[in-house]
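Treating backbone geometry as a discrete language has practical consequences that deserve illustration. The amino acid sequence and the backbone structure tokens for this protein are reproduced below.
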Amino acid sequence: MKVTVAGTRLAIKTDAKPKYIKELAAYVTEKIEEIKSSGKTATTQSLALLVAMSIADELHELQSEQAQLKRDVRDRTNRILRYLEREAQ
């Protein structure tokens, strides 16, 4: 399929749904525009790297939040199990 990212047309071979790929392209374009609007002049390569760093940061934050949520669920589950075990005795 073909998609446009920040004015550049790309051909992508994927099994993903076209709507999803278009959403990704729009997201990356939005991030590029966000960084461009910071006022600093940058080459296409440096813009791409800054966008990659920004998206990697978002991913890392979400992974950290997910890991914390998993720990919280595990801790609460263990407390509930201990409570139920005490009540069953």
